[in-house]
Amino acid sequence: MSHAVASGAHDRFTLGFLDPALEQRYQLAAGAESQNGFRAIALASGVLWGLAAIVVPIGTSLAPLLATPVALVMGAIGIALAVVSPWATTLNRQHALASVLTSANSIVILALALIGNVMPGYAVAAMMLLFTWAFVSRTRFVYAIVRTGVVTAAFLVAAALYAGPASLLVDIFFLVAAAIGTLAALRILERSRRQLFFQELVIREQSEQLAAEAKKSDQLILNILPASIAARLRDGERSIADDYPAVTVLFADIVGFTPMSAQLPAHDLIDLLSGLFSRFDDLVAECGLEKIKTIGDAYMAVGGLSGEPDHAPNVVRLGLAMLAEAGRHEALGHPLDLRIGVHSGPVAGGVIGTRKLAFDLWGDTVNVASRLQEVGPVGTVHVSEQTWLLVRDQFECDSLGEHELRGHSGMPTYRVISAAAPVGSLA
Questions:
Q1: Helix 91-115 and helix 124-136: axis angle, to 10°?
Q2: pLDDT in tens, the chain (427 residues)
Q3: Whole-angstrom distance, CA of residue 82 vs CA of residue 86
Q4: How far is the C-alpha of 35 from the C-alpha of 91, rounded, in Å?
Q5: CA angle 64-68-71, nearest 5°?
Q6: CA pair distance 240, 354, nearest whole angstrom
């Protein structure tokens, strides 16, 4: 926001906002709010003049041949303005048209009163009726000034031309008092209306900014925490630790990364990892799984935190997709290779830290998946027997016999060859 917009600065006389864009926003918003009222006033003018075509000849000495056609013409003008009211989208257009209509009404009324010799009482009553409608329509102060000037000037001219015996002093007094009171009320009303508009605008923009910041914050949290854990943190939980009875954990590691990193400039190395792991993040999201963390060139993901029954097949699909994706990235002129280990079982999980939050998993299932990755054949998804039992109907696998795992007893393991059925976009 500019300073003029931020402060809501306005012209002391016209009350218009100094910032053109802010004034335009107000004009359109207030115009939309007032359009029905403007149409109603134009229609009321047409209806009242139609009634006047009957009442005036009866209640005054004006000849019907004069009063009736004039009243009908003025009524037609009011109806015409009601018809074109959709064009008056801004407050200025509405009030400019309303001011022209009111000024014309006042001049015609005064002319008829002068001709009919009913200036005292009747004329000032009609003028005050116009002022009342001006207040009802919440006319802008600057237009009210112009219109009041026209009405007052027309009345003074009519008073000067009046040749009857009655004094118009009291009529002039009431007219001036009504004009001053109406102008004061309209100025206060417009100022309050503009202040309310500006306050609502500021509140709305601040709310939108807060919502945008909250969305960014939520997205940052979702980038480092599973959605269910992030929701619990937002709900006020501070100590989150859970047991997950059945999940599938995946570890992936880039083959030959240590000697590769010694030959690549730091910038190229970071670009390589960032590009590869960003694609892995996309694949994890497509499979409905959760990324847990990266450690150097190692990538850890898990399925089953939300209790979904097909966590093992989805994790294996992820592993196959990661192998295919790694082959699309090159370093030192060669495509990347991965070792991937997958194991299924129970884990414990929770949020650690208070300043830099991190969600992590612990347990034998995590250790076994990591060991399977360490000893797995290059370019394959190496799974435990527990995982194989969960995916054997969906994937073709080769038995690799029993493997000795570091820090763990030996266990049968398998190599996933391919999916037994189409796996969609991740195949």
A1: 170
A2: 544 455 678 888 888 898 898 999 999 998 888 888 888 888 988 998 899 889 888 887 788 888 899 989 999 999 998 898 888 899 899 888 888 888 888 888 888 888 888 888 777 788 777 777 777 777 888 888 988 888 888 888 888 888 888 888 888 888 888 888 888 888 998 899 999 999 998 898 889 888 888 888 777 776 667 766 777 777 666 667 789 999 999 999 999 998 988 888 999 999 999 999 999 999 999 999 999 999 989 999 999 988 889 999 999 999 999 999 999 998 888 899 999 999 999 999 888 766 667 788 999 999 999 999 999 999 999 999 999 999 999 999 999 999 888 877 789 999 999 876 444 445 4
A3: 8
A4: 8
A5: 145
A6: 12
CA 375 to chain centre: 52
CATH architecture, range 238-426:
2-Layer Sandwich (3.30)
Q: In terms of Cα–Cα distance, which of 340, 341, 347, 344 is closest to 386?
A: 344
- Give which of 263, 264, 225 is closest to 353, Cα–Cα: 225
Distance CA 238, CA 357 (A): 11
Token pair listed for 382: 């190496």
- For residue 89, the SS3 value is coil
Q: Which residue has the tokens 């391919």?
A: 418
pTM over 0.90: no
Element containing residue 256 per DSSP (H, E): none
Alpha-helix residue ranges (DSSP H) falling in 60-123: 64-83, 91-115
d(CA 156, CA 149) in angstroms, rounded, equals: 11
- State the amino acid at position 204 in one-letter form: R
Residue with tokens 């118009």: 168
Contact 59, 99 (CB under 8 A): no
List the one residue out of 290, 320, 325 whose CA is nearest residue 391.
320
Every domain of the chain and the residues it spans: 3-207, 238-426
Give the phi and the psi of residue 343 in degrees, each rounded to 5.
Answer: -145, 145
Tokens 């009747």, located at residue: 122
Q: What's the angle, vertex CA 341, arms to CA 337 and CA 347, rounded to 5?
A: 145
- Name the DSSP class of 377: P
Residue whose tokens read 């937002």: 234
Instruction: Determine contact, residues 99/90, Cβ cutoff 8 Å.
Output: no
Pairing type for strands 334-335 and 358-362 reads: unpaired
Instruction: Check: CB of residue 311 under 8 Å from CB of residue 304.
Output: yes
